[in-house]
Design goal:
alpha/beta; pyruvate-formate lyase- activating enzyme; Arc Repressor Mutant, subunit A; nine-stranded mixed sheet; three-stranded antiparallel sheet; 21% strand
């Protein structure tokens, strides 16, 4: 890696109190992990993995850190502090601009919050999903909305001034009124950032099995699109600007870590199933806990797969990731980065997408972004740029 290159770090904590019915991430019940002492084993392995990258970490300007999962707040705060202190042996983190941890309502206590503050964490991301307890129960969430409110006010009182709240739409049995109620009540709390995600039924999850059996009825596609538009409209009127398909922020408080991904910049992931992209190489760790810890115990990086990214693939990723952002693609920057004439190369696709009302070109044609309709049909737009 180049000297002093900006870098984002992701740290995976694969433990949860209970696994949500829709979740296909690598995670384990914390009660089982505590019983078998596997949290200590994992944290030790994670620190060893970080040590393997001491040279890369030492050369980098680490701008953002994101601790995700799983549910990082399901384990004791001392483990988080332990990881961060270990990381500081290789990088002082003086360039750090944003440090986020994911938490779930009802999983925080004094010890955890104090540890996060001591670690330098300055942003909290919390999964709310819905303001209706019946909907929360239907997707396997273990918290009630009142527990969320208690947690939210608690972390505010402790001094956190940058909070993201996640909500979901397209849930089984959810109505347009449910969605509007949730987005209004979340906006009333005035978090700095709100993310709104459509439910995705992933194969192998309990929800997928229910859906396949016909026991689960989801809102139709038109209703789901209406839900999305209601969210966008309500948040705009509340002073949140949409800067990415699923993300809304108060001015200047966009998720800097996620912008690393959307701008196709380098990031390094630690932990089981973590992904990385460094110097035109994409690689991922073992998604099996035993394989992950075993590799580290043998003194090896726990990398399961490594793929060299050629220039055409990297260009396509830059296009589709950049188009997720409302600011869109800066044409001259792409031309300089890939030594090309973007408008000439994609002239036919651009003309067709403009005619269909899916993209808009700025005056001077130096920036391309999705229209509202284009955000609804973003996959169709992305496919038009596939080589």
């Amino acid at each position: 890696m180049e000297e002093n290159k900006n870098l984002g770090l992701y740290i995976h904590i694969p433990f949860c109190v209970e696994k949500c019915l829709y979740c296909d991430f690598v995670s384990y019940k914390v009660s089982d992990a505590e019983k078998h002492k596997s949290i200590e084993t994992y944290i030790k392995a994670l620190k060893e993995e970080i040590s393997f990258y001491k040279d890369e970490l030492g050369r980098a300007h680490i701008k953002t850190i994101f601790i995700g999962g799983g549910t990082p707040s399901s384990i004791e705060g001392r483990y988080i502090l332990e990881i961060v202190n270990h990381l500081k042996q290789f990088n002082p983190l003086t360039a750090l601009e944003e440090f986020t941890i994911e938490v779930n309502p009802g999983t925080l206590n004094e010890e955890k919050i104090n540890a996060y503050l001591s670690a330098g964490i300055n942003r909290v991301s919390m999964g709310v999903q819905s303001s209706r307890d019946s909907l929360l129960k239907s997707i396997g969430r273990i918290h009630t909305f009142n527990e969320f409110l208690t947690t939210y006010h608690g972390i505010r009182e402790k001094g956190f001034r940058n909070i993201n709240l996640d909500m979901m739409f397209g849930l089984p049995g959810q109505t347009l009124e449910d969605v509007l109620h949730t987005v209004k009540i979340l906006a009333d709390l005035m978090p700095e950032h709100i993310s709104a995600y459509s439910l995705k039924i992933e194969e192998g999850t309990p929800m997928y099995r229910l859906y396949e059996s016909g026991a689960l009825v989801l809102p139709d596609e038109a209703t789901e699109r209406d839900m999305y538009r209601v969210i966008c409209k309500e948040l705009e009127t509340r002073g949140y600007h949409q800067y990415e398909i699923s993300n809304f922020a108060k001015e200047g408080l966009e998720s800097r870590h996620n912008l690393t991904y959307w701008r196709n910049e380098p990031y390094l992931g630690f932990g089981v199933a973590a992904h990385s992209k460094m110097d035109s190489v994409r690689f991922n760790n073992y998604s099996n806990m035993m394989a992950y810890t075993s590799a580290i115990e043998k003194g090896n990086k726990p990398v399961e797969e490594e793929i060299q990214i050629d220039e055409s693939e990297d260009l396509f990723e830059t296009i589709i990731l950049g188009l997720r952002l409302n600011e869109g693609l800066e044409i001259e920057a792409i031309n300089a980065a890939y030594n090309m004439d973007f408008l000439s190369m994609y002239q036919e696709a651009i003309s067709r997408l403009e005619e269909q009302g899916l993209i808009v070109m700025s005056e001077g044609r130096n920036r391309m972004s999705l229209t509202d309709r284009g955000r609804d049909l973003s996959n169709q737009v992305f496919l038009a740029f596939m080589a």
